[in-house]
Design brief:
Blueprint (H helix, E strand, L loop, with lengths): L1 H24 L19 H34 L3 H4 L5 H33 L7 H33 L4 H22 L7 E3 L4 H13 L5 E5 L10 E4 L6 E5 H6 L2 H16 L2 H27 L9 H39 L2 H14 L8 H7 L5 H16 L8
Parallel strand pairs: 2-4
Antiparallel strand pairs: 1-2, 3-4
Helix pairs in contact: 1-10, 1-11, 2-4, 2-11, 4-5, 5-6, 6-10, 7-9, 9-11, 10-11, 11-14, 12-14
Length: 412
């Protein structure tokens, strides 16, 4: 009986651990409560319909892509290729080759769906990249994915040979270490393979950034401009890196297409992430969740692996199990992400004290990026990494009212 209950207990435990980590690390200060605002006050009917039609279609394609990946993994687990049966002589090499091949297979199987999604984005004006450039990016991405998957497959074989069914214990250390290494090295090793990054030159924008960082009381690291416009008309910014690689990255079309006041607000938002150490806290969340998640994945993979099969046959089973366990956990993590983004919005409002520009920016960026300004509640709850557009506008309106009454909070 205990053996039968181990798997369901582990699966429930993984979800409980993820939710507990969210509650433990969730920001306590998230700014004023957003005011309910009607979409028609800020967007035309055509803009609302266009965003809904585009994002709904992309969501269906995302679901289709996920279904294709699941179907491929299930097929490989149910009928393992004969090459896996021959991998017992050189398990490390076989494990690396198996997971790398699986990565490439999944990439090839989902490519048609990704192409359709790209064409739909191109139809609404979001894509600027040529097919040649896109093909080059796909090739580089698949090659890097296969290389990393191969390393994971080899490490899995080491874990299985030395620790047996308890491979998830050292696996947890590897996952967290990879997360730290990826966060540190990604901005200087991987990102430049796809884009060109340039430090902001001396000028008004750089002076604004340094002034905001001084007032925010943060070490901003470096601020870069990335040539995002070579691929898309969408605008964005983000914080990445750890230690010496910490940086704020601004899309070139954000700098070009938005007013200085609006760019200042975006920079202030990103400085909020730096101030509250959101990247390290994300790694802490991973460290808290990984043990329970990998234990559940290990038990599920053991159940999925055919009896009497060589150790290398566990590779596709582990890949499927990790995917099945990680999906609901990532949905839970979206709660944390939305709370963090709301706090960063509140920080930018408190730092700039410019709710009018904040509200105007949220309107313009939603139209420019063809956002769904009224997404279904279930989609926001399960999938959204940021608060919905109307909620963000509502927070700006709430701060504007507080500012008019002289009650607007300062930087926490």
């Amino acid at each position: 009986m205990r053996t039968r209950l181990r798997l369901p207990i582990a699966l429930v435990g993984a979800l409980v651990a993820a939710e507990a980590a969210v509650l433990l690390l969730r920001p306590r200060e998230r700014g004023p409560e957003p005011v309910d605002v009607p979409a028609r006050d800020y967007f035309s009917a055509a803009q609302i319909e266009r965003g809904d039609a585009f994002r709904s279609g992309q969501l269906w394609l995302f679901g289709l892509r996920t279904a294709v990946e699941l179907a491929v993994l299930v097929a490989v687990v149910r009928r393992p290729p004969r090459l896996l049966e021959r991998g017992s002589r050189r398990p490390l090499l076989a494990g690396a080759a198996a997971w790398a091949a699986l990565s490439l297979t999944l990439g090839a199987a989902t490519l048609p769906v990704r192409v359709i999604a790209r064409e739909r984005a191109k139809d609404v004006g979001l894509v600027t990249q040529s097919w040649t450039g896109y093909a080059g990016d796909v090739a580089k991405g698949e090659a890097i994915g296969a290389l990393l998957a191969g390393a994971g497959g080899a490490l899995l074989m080491v874990g299985l040979r030395r620790f047996g069914s308890r491979w998830w214990m050292p696996g947890t250390v590897v996952v967290v270490a990879f997360g730290v290494l990826g966060s540190y090295a990604g901005p200087v090793v991987l990102d430049p393979l796809f884009n060109r990054f340039e430090k902001l030159p001396a000028g008004e924008l750089r002076s604004d950034v340094l002034d905001l960082a001084r007032r925010a009381g943060v070490d901003v690291g470096q601020v870069y401009e990335v040539d995002a416009s070579r691929r898309t008309t969408a605008s964005n910014a983000y914080v990445t890196g750890l230690g010496h690689t910490k940086r704020v990255v601004l899309y070139d079309n954000l700098i070009k297409d938005f007013s200085p006041a609006e760019v200042r607000l975006v920079v202030a938002h990103e400085l909020g992430h730096v101030r509250h150490r959101d990247v390290p806290h994300g790694l802490l969340w991973l460290a808290l969740v990984a043990p329970a998640a990998l234990w559940a994945a290990a038990l599920l993979a053991e159940r999925l692996t055919p009896r009497g099969a060589p150790a290398v046959a566990a590779v596709p089973a582990v890949a499927l199990a990790v995917g099945l366990v990680a999906t609901p956990i990532m949905m839970i993590s979206s709660q944390q992400s939305r709370a963090i983004e709301r706090r960063a919005d509140a920080f930018s409002l408190a730092l700039t004290r410019d709710p009018e520009s904040f509200i105007g920016f949220e309107q313009r960026i939603a139209v420019k990026n063809v956002a769904d300004v009224e997404p279904p509640a279930w989609m926001t709850f399960l999938l959204a990494s940021h608060p919905p557009t109307l909620e963000r506008i509502g927070q700006g309106v709430a701060y504007e009212r507080l500012l008019a009454r002289g009650e607007a909070p300062a930087i926490p």
